[in-house]
Amino acid sequence: MEKTFSRQTYGQRIQNHSNPAAKMLLEIMERKKTNLAVSVDVTRSKDFIAIIDTVGPFVCLVKTHIDIIEDFDFSLIKQLQDLSDKHDFAIFEDRKFADIGNTVALQYSSGVHKIASWSHITNAHPVPGPSIISGLSSVGLPLGRGLLLLAEMSTKGALAVGTYTEEAVRMARAHRDFVVGFIAQRTMKGVGMQDNVTDNDDFLILTPGVGLDTKGDAMGQQYRTPRQVIVDSECDVIIVGRGIYGKDPSLVDEIRAQAKRYMDAGWEAYQERISAPVV
Ligand code: 5IU
Question: Which residue range or ranges hold the Orotidine 5'-phosphate decarboxylase domain (predicted)?
Answer without folding.
Answer: 35-257
